[in-house]
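Weekly puzzle thread! Below is a chain. First person to post its structure in token form gets bragging rights.
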Amino acid sequence: MEINNPKAIAHRPRRAALNWVDYLVIAATALTFLAVVAANNPHAARAQSRTSLLTSDDLPDQSTQAAEDADLIKAKIGLALRHL
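Winning reply:
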């Protein structure tokens, strides 16, 4: 007949589910997400475009410049077509 003596089992501490590298990755992911959301915020883009609109008085006159440089424009188009 055998005597059932309990065997000594070393208690291993349970490993944490997440270590510090995992927390760094989670934090970096959250910061990246917030940066993308802030950059693509449609309300902020609308507010910026309203303040940066130019009026027609702020634009330079462009009507006479095209007639004077018609030959130069044709030459640039010709050079661009040769390089294709």
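Puzzle host: Confirmed. Bonus trivia for everyone else. Residues 18-48 form one domain.
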